[in-house]
Every structure is written in structure tokens, then in C-alpha cells.
Amino acid sequence: MRLLHTSDWHLGRAFHRVNMLGAQAGFIDHLVDTVREHDVEAVVVSGDVYDRAVPPLAAVELFDDALHRLAALGVPTVMISGNHDSARRLGVGAGLIDRAGIHLRTDPAGCGTPVVLHDAHGDVAFYGLPYLEPALVKTEFGVDKPGHEAVLAAAMDRVRADLAGRAPGTRSVVLAHAFVTGGEPSDSERDITVGGVAAVPRGVFDGVDYVALGHLHGCQTLTERVRYSGSPLPYSFSEAAHRKSTWIVDLDAAGEVTAERVDCPVPRPLARLRGTLDELLADPELTAHEEAWVEATLTDPVRPADPMARITDRFPHTLSLAFDPERAPDDPAVSYARRLAGRSDQQIAEDFVTHVRGAGPDDDERTVLRDAFDAVRADETLREVAR
């Protein structure tokens, strides 16, 4: 069976101040063409269809158009909700849409109930594991201390139990939306840390033929059987080195996997430029970036006059301008933001405790801080769901 694996469309999202709806519509055109031209037999979409729980109307219309076009091809599509989606809203009408070959899996209780498709070699069971927010699904899965690994492990136990009761030779595909150990994140993914831990081990998914992951925006191969498709479009300058693509996955009669990447159309390349303003304006090697979306970081010791106007004369699509004066590490003018770069909320809070009282927090205090951050994240998730 030939699958197309995609995820993280984030319909309705902008890139800095640029409306991306036209580029997202271009991706849907590309998706439909790819399904047709590559003789794809099933499409899997591993979450974050929308960028937020209540998407703009134009994004909903684009999603509706995508569903109609995929259904018209007669190619089944299996889709799960991600951490940006409202599972309830995305899943409205799922029972009716099933009849058109569009299978929306947004209810955690259905993790062990697959969509079963058929090819010349027999059955392929597709198990949709929507994004599982530990605090919201701990009762459903009977876990005492909710965490991403615990709830995903419980969901995969249901998958393996169902698969064990099926005919020998049944192949299996799992869709999941999670941060799996070994994956490389970017700046555009929402933090899903719980209990100080965001990642889950790859071994959680043992026992199935292919795992189609969503959440991380870079296309990645963790193992031959466990892959991220990444987002089809860039949503932060940290993705400047990404090659945006989808996976075409062939699952043979024995469940062996071969895969190839199909590049997605992107409206403009991204460029991250760094140097003094005069250097950026004069360097001939930067000519290739003059039509790119640009993030420019100026290192001038003194902020130059009219920097944005001057840099857009050469790079008209500059979207981000930052200042990072080159100073000695012990210079008191080094910015607070620079000192915090790369540090987690937990580390920043612990540093503050140390600064205020002269001694860092003990283990119990670290737990209190971690629980507080987890409670805030869970509350934000609940508010999104309630909207």
C-alpha cells in the first residue's frame, strides 16, 4: 500500500506579518496533484490541521475544499487532531464524513479502533492517536501520574491488543502527534512539556509497521519505521535550513517500509543574516538572498539610523530585524534576553530563586515550580478546548 504522510498544515497561520493562506492553498493543490500523480492509496495527516482552536473562516473554507478534493479522488484519508486543534470542533460530523472516505480521529477513547483499508496483500489497520494532553486524558487511560510517555504507552497498549486479535499478516500504521526522543524541534512548535519532560521514547511505538508522526516541523527519520513529515510550509526563521516535503511511503506485503520525499512548493526561501548594517548592504555573496524572506541581526556596537528602511532597500522582504551588538561577555550591557537564550522556564525560575536568596531551590521546591508550570500549561489547553 502506498501512503502519503503529511502533518502540521497550521491553516490560518501567518509567517510574521505575511498572510500564508495563499501559500497554504498552493500546498493543497500540490497535495492533490501528488496523490494523483504518485498513485497514492491512502493519505495520513498527523495533526495540527489548524493553527488554533477557533480558526478563521478562510482557513475552515480551505480545509473544507481539501476534504472535498481528496474525497473526489476516491483515496481514503485518515486524520488526527494535534495540540493546536480543537479536537471537538475538528471531529464534528466525523461519522458522516467517514462515508466519504475521510476518517477523522479526534477522540482519545478510539485509539484502539482502527480504520481498516485493503490492498492486494490484505488488510492495513490505521490507528489514529490524537494529541493526548496528559492532564485531560489520565482518567481515560487509567494512569496515576499523567505524563506524555504514560498516556501514549497506554494508548499503544490498546493498539497492540487490537492488532493481536486481527488476522495474521495484518499490517499496521499509527498516526500520533507528539515529541519523540531524537526529534529536532524548531521555534514554531508550541511547548508541550509536562513534569519537566516533553519527549517520549521511540520504543513506545514498538510493534507496528509504520508510525506517521506530527508536531515537529522538520522532516525527520527517527528510524525507517518512525518518521516526521514536518510542516509543508515554514512558520519560523529557525526552519530556514528545512527542506519542506511530504513522505511517500510504500508498505509491502510483509510490512517492510520504503520511503521517498516529495518537495512542497514554498513561496520564498528563508535567510538568516548577521553582521553590521554596512556589511549586510555591501556583501556581494548575499545577492542570492535579495528575494528571500529575511531575518537580519545587526551587530553594530551602536544602533544605526533608520536600519529597517536601509536594509529593505537591498532586501525588500525583510520581516524581522534584531540587534545583538558584539560586546565582551562580561560587558554589563549584554542584554537580559541574550542571557536567557536557550533556557527553559523552569531554569529561569530556579535562577531567580538563587538570585533572590543566594541559594538554589531544593528538590521539593523544584517539584513545586514544575507543578506550577504544568498547571499553567494545562489551564491554557483547557481554555483552548472551551473556546
What is the top-level CATH class of the largest domain?
Alpha Beta
* Largest beta-sheet characterization: 6 strands, mixed
From the spread of the alpha carbons, the general shape counts as globular
* The CATH homology group name of the largest domain: Metallo-dependent phosphatases
State the separation between the terminal residues, measured CA to CA: 39 Å
Please report the total strand number as a whole number: 19
The Cα radius of gyration reads 23 Å
Structural class: alpha/beta
Provide the number of structural domains.
Answer: 2
- Low-confidence segments, ≥5 residues, pLDDT <50? none
Spatial arrangement of strands, main beta sheet: 6-5-4-1-15-16
Query: On the 0-100 scale, what is the average pLDDT?
Result: 90
Protein name: Nuclease SbcCD subunit D
Subunit structure: Heterodimer of SbcC and SbcD.
Organism: Streptomyces rochei (Streptomyces parvullus)
InterPro entries: Calcineurin-like_PHP (IPR004843), DNA_Repair-Maintenance_Comp (IPR050535), Metallo-depent_PP-like (IPR029052), Mre11_N (IPR041796), SbcD (IPR004593), SbcD_C (IPR026843)
